[in-house]
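cache lookup: miss for this entity combination. No prior model stored, computing from scratch. Input as submitted by user K.M.:
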Amino acid sequence: MMNEIGEMVQLELRDVTHCYNGKMVLDIPHLSIERGKIYGVVGPNGSGKTTLLSIMNLLIRPTTGQLFFEGKSIHDEDNSRMEIQRSMAMTLQTPYLFDTTVEGNIAYGLRARGNPRKNWTAIIEDALQKVGLRGLAKRRARELSGGEVQLVAIARALVIDPKILFLDEPTANVDLRHIHQLEEIIAAINGDRGTTIVLATHDLSQAYRFAHYVFPFFEGRLVPSTMHNLFGGTIKSSPDGPYFDTGKIQIWILQEVSSSASTHISINPEDIIVSKEPFASSARNRYEGTITQVVDQKGRVDLVVNAGESFRVQITEHSFRRLGLNVGSRIYVTFKASSVHLL
Amino acid sequence: MEYLVEAFGNSIELIFSLDGEIYGIVGRSVFFALTATFLAALCGVPIGFLVATKRFRGRSGLLTVMNTLMALPTVVIGLLAYGFFSRRAPLGFLDLLFSPTAVIIGEFILSLPIIANLTVSAVQAVDPRAILTAKSLGAGRVQVAWTILMEARFSLLAAIIAGFGRAVSEVGSAMMLGGNIRFYTRTMTTAIALETSKGEFGFGLALGFFLLLVVFSINILFHFFQVKGRQ
């Protein structure tokens, strides 16, 4: 099945909801995953990313809604359900390695698929080489470090050559050295094999570095904006219009949903203007603050500005140099009421 | 005191003289207990697995019954089985009373709740991520079940060894169902009871040493597997 721009839709969710103890934790009217692409599912902890991945990997059944794999509806009774599940793989946020050797763990999926044992050695060696763990085949899995565990989990998923690989927070519990290694491996899996990858992460910059598409996720729903500058608070009314009260600052917004409603807002870092002096403009939100962090993102610079609330702002390297900014610089952050997204 | 020292000396002499009757009794006891434990494991492990992994009506009641059965006195088992196997009883036609099979059945009934209960605990202790991981790697139902059992293997072995310990050391049902027949159904425990009542304290003590040796070995193995299971 093709989408409107002619790309192959591999997995599709329609009107999927999921409830735990009567509480709805996931509500996806529509979501499609195209073949060979990398998707980043971003959102704070508890936003439903793992539930979404588990439903897509057919590990749990949604309370309502339907899933389609390569255009065909997946039914509970259908014998092909297992076949479809076997064409996908998932690594958990904290991967579980079986109480055996590294080799035994990697062979698990091969054994489950009835792959002849004589083929295993070469496949396992190849997978271990790809994740940079060559020579560790005979090591007990429980003796590995956190980063190595994550790499073995990826190698274990790789040997079954999945059409879609779901990675749940693959770098959440690993050290910096392994994070870079993992990111390179994930990019290579997609680049070399054309494997579709769905990556759940709370690290927005990681999602944007990798993904062709990013799905911002909040409280079980897909939301239109990114998850940076996410503030909780209440919407209030005033003669000048509605505003959002975070408890520390007041942010002008466009829509008035309901008075005193407790909710969240987000502001795209790219929508925030940085200046050394206040300037006249139509933008209603302006706050003075101090730069507390500067992160070089190759070509652009991410600033964290404490202006009552902590704002993440994205500017070009050129602007950063031109304004002569650094940690401790006093600046103004300005954005329009229309840049504030109610979640 | 002299009496005890003499009995102790006699028992050591019997052990090192490789007395055929003593070694026969030891061998028979171990064989009965091993057979009963093997059969109890065949039934108890699947029962424990199902109780641990399935949610069904009456599950909590079943768990209470299984726990109660663990503490069932051996003579009660002997009495109940006797009621079924004696000549006029429903299973009297099988002619099992006072046979090795009857002893094994008694020991099986004693071991079963222990193995089943400890299997429930062992399976419930397996990390839930093991099931998710197995499923996400394409394992079917049987493969997932096998994976859980493999992850719990050390605790399961400990459960089976505990079942063997109960079988080899019981006396009540073996006496009532086996009849303590020489060279046929006499086990270490029934022989100790008989020889002591006859005044053959040395003979009883020699068998007591063997029984202690078996139980001690079982406990070492049990401890080893429990430690491995916790690692």
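stored under new cache key. Chain A has two domains: 9-222, 230-342.
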